[in-house]
Amino acid sequence: MSARTRNLVLLLVLVGFIASFVTGFGSALVVARSGSPLVNGFLSGDTNVPAIASQNTPPELKGKFDVFWEAWKLVEDEFYGRPVDENKMVYGAAKGMMESLGDDYTMFVTPAENQDIQAHMEGSFQGIGVWVEMRNQKLTIVSPIAGSPAEKAGIRTGDVITMVDGKSIEGLSIEEVVAMMKGPKGTKVTISILRGDSAEPRSFQITRDEIKVPSVTSKMLDSNIAYIQVMVFGDDTTALFDAALRDAASKNAKGLILDLRSNGGGYVKTAREMLGRFLPGGVALYEDTDQGPGGETSQDVITGDIKAYDIPMVVLVNGGTASASEIVAGALQDRKRATLIGEKTFGKGSVQDVRTFTDGSSARITVAHWLTPNKRQIQGAGLTPDLAVTLTESDIQAGNDTQLTAAQSFFQKAPQ
Containing domain of residue 165, as a range? Predict the structure, then answer.
């Protein structure tokens, strides 16, 4: 896996304008011929695309692709709605191939979807503001973004989306559902969900808005305890996190609460850099590419100018703590550097290799699972906090953050 693409561990689809293969297949479609321009992925002037592309199909796959090209030709010749959008057909075939693998995290992403994902990582987009994940063929809310229209409307982690604007999403792909939910600021969408064990759906009308996601916020709490909340491991997170740590140090903070609740993840490199502020070196995570002992490759923490190696720490986690945030929480727990308080984390421990194609589309292929420094498997299992504290819906409605209160009490009881 290349270093530049390994760093993106998570692409949980963010419902705004974001929806949520391959090189060999793409080369069968884009035929290299010196001096012939490409138009919409095909050679300008060529009228028999299936025949041309078939000639470039690897011999060992030719028999298998014959069916594909027969189907393609049938659509071009007989489909009632001709002319067809060839790019849309190619993207549809690519998406179908990825979905056939049965892995929720392996996917094909169109150029427009790629642009929206990047906009999120940069911290600004329009939409309702939730992280969603296709889990067991159910579109599940990983977490609403703090302060987002979705959170204000009452959407919660673990909610399963069943309908959008009164239409069932059963059998639809994640990108099809997202297409139904996306829209410009000020427009409304009605989301129906199932929550917990209840068989009764709940409906929420949500007004889309501009979502600005500061990746790091911080403040000082009573008893001189620093509180730093990290919402995403994005482009600017390390710089903002370092600034927050410097501010805490300047105020002689006696303890630190790192809030990773509802943090859906982001870049692995950013997670390793964050760990490097609290650990002087050593393993941040292992990548397991062989699905068994002996196939693990270690990745170390990345240290920087900030060295907060001794400040007592609590990490807040919940069911929306996923992927890169689980890397940080898992490493700090394994290496006895911090106490985890809250609820069991999401359990997203697979690594996607991201390959971008010339038209701006990309493939995200699961190439490994990552493990904690103690080689604990996170995928599907999550992290169990050292101190379990539940935050109920009634607590949220009452503004009573029981988990944060428990973290503050932990410092009061801890030996000074």
Answer: 124-212
